[in-house]
Write a structure and sequence with these properties.
This protein is mostly beta strands. It contains 4 helices and 32 strands.
């Protein structure tokens, strides 16, 4: 069949690269087993992926062993809708800021999702049977005329196609005046905290109409405000401990046994600034965008604009490890300030053994650091690497010195392609990377420590 010469040409490259704001992924989170992976986007949607177990024959065919498998879409639902605060005349975005899974107690899964104001508890369950043979209802679910019922029967469960049901179980609202930036489930399995710019509240999962304020840094006069809360997280093992970070680059460890209102911290983690290196951008780039406890509970991992730092809970004088994520951008801070990239909030994560840390960068790059050797590697999340069995290629940013083939110049970096959100499987070397509207899932068939050079 000949081609119509007058038919319009379709720019497939444009269609592929066109991204609507609502499709941009804003959070990524594995559940406690790693079998489920949830993502939230700026359109208020939550997409849950489930890991499919590959057959033994498929694994042997590619020379691999173990419980491997791809992640396929398990369920999609609308978590939040756009809202309006009539008292303040402000629009409330539907964007999902954070997702946190609750420890699984039965066959169902539970997760918390939040936008700027409202936190919701969702129940995710499966149904593969349906009841039939009701006495008072017909097959359509309508009530029967009781005068027509001449005999009784026992309802039975009949097999049916598998259905995944997602239902809201709790809605926690009116707890925050400012935008919620963090939620964290407590190790007791009954409570969780939520943090906004000036306050941290603790909620009971079964009570929606009230919460307990445990941190309040709002001054009597807002003109005296010098810092805001940027992130908060519970300790993974001790239900009375939690940490929160600030825009001044400090961390505060709080113990709820000492006081119901934790305005006075138990420990303050801070790194003294070198007066000689202070500049107009110092306070902006020192703001902590993310804080994570290690799985052991001994260390804290933080991310500011240029570095990732590891802190020991027993040493509050300064970080025990500092990793330069993209130091080559220090000379570009002025232009990054003008295009607002300097305010980007990068996340950071630990691997399952706390031996490797990972965080994001620009140009679809993300970085991994081996804590034992201190060496790091730059990897790229791009479409070619998303092909099955494809190998991630390492990249290098050229900033003077000898240039190698394949190096990317600092001036050639694409600052619109940023890796802000990521997650690491709780027990395996599987990572999930969010790049605008794309989700990349990579699995290390060997060992990440052997690749960090």
């Amino acid at each position: 069949m000949g081609e119509d010469t007058e038919s319009p040409k379709i720019n497939h490259t444009f269609l592929r690269d066109y991204v609507t704001e609502a499709d941009v992924i804003s959070t990524v989170e594995f559940n406690h087993t790693g079998d489920l992976l949830a993502t939230g986007d700026k359109g208020g949607r939550v997409v849950i992926f489930q890991r499919e177990t590959e057959s033994k024959g498929e694994l042997e065919e590619v020379g691999e062993t173990g419980d491997s498998g791809e992640y396929n879409v398990y369920s999609t639902f609308q978590s939040h809708e756009p809202d309006f605060d009539y008292l303040k005349s402000l629009e409330i975005e539907e964007k999902i800021n954070k997702i946190r899974w609750l420890p699984q107690q039965n066959a169902a899964h539970f997760l918390l999702s939040t936008n700027d104001k409202t936190i919701k508890l969702w129940k995710v369950s499966e149904r593969d049977k349906r009841p039939e043979g009701y006495n008072l209802k017909d097959e359509g679910g309508r009530l029967k005329d009781t005068s027509t019922i001449t005999s009784l029967q026992v309802p039975v469960l009949k097999p049916t196609d598998l259905m995944v049901e997602v239902r809201p179980r709790r809605v926690f609202s009116n707890g925050h005046t400012y935008h919620v930036n963090s939620i964290s489930v407590n190790s007791d399995g009954e409570t969780y905290l939520s943090a906004d710019d000036l306050r941290i509240n603790m909620w009971h999962l079964g009570i929606t109409d009230r919460s307990f304020n445990i941190v309040d840094i709002k001054p009597a006069n807002m003109e005296d405000l010098t810092e805001v809360i940027t992130a908060a997280e519970f300790h993974p093992h001790h239900c009375h401990l939690f940490v929160y970070s600030s825009s001044k680059g400090t961390l505060r460890l709080c113990d709820m046994r000492a006081s119901a209102l934790c305005d006075r911290h138990t420990k303050l983690f801070d790194e003294p600034e070198d007066p000689g290196s202070r500049s107009f951008f110092s306070e902006i780039i020192s703001s902590v965008s993310d804080v994570k406890f290690s799985h052991s509970g001994r260390y804290l991992l933080t991310r500011d604009y240029l570095t990732a730092k590891v802190w020991d809970l027993n040493m509050d004088k300064g970080p025990v490890e500092t990793y330069q994520v993209h130091e080559y951008l220090r000379s570009k801070l002025c232009s990054l300030y003008e295009n607002d990239c300097i305010f980007d909030k990068f996340e950071c994560v630990w691997n399952s053994s706390d031996s490797v840390i990972m965080t994001g960068a620009y140009n679809s790059f993300f970085r991994m650091f081996d804590r034992e050797t201190g060496r790091g590697v730059t990897l790229e999340a791009w479409r070619e690497s998303s092909k099955p069995r494809a190998v991630l290629r390492t990249r290098r940013v050229y900033n003077g010195g000898k240039r190698r083939r394949g190096d990317v110049g600092v001036d050639s970096l694409d600052f619109t392609k940023k890796i802000l959100h990521m997650a690491w499987h709780p027990s395996e070397n599987i990572i999930a990377i969010a790049a605008t509207n794309n989700l990349y899932i990579f699995q290390d068939r060997i060992n990440p420590e052997t690749q960090l050079q």
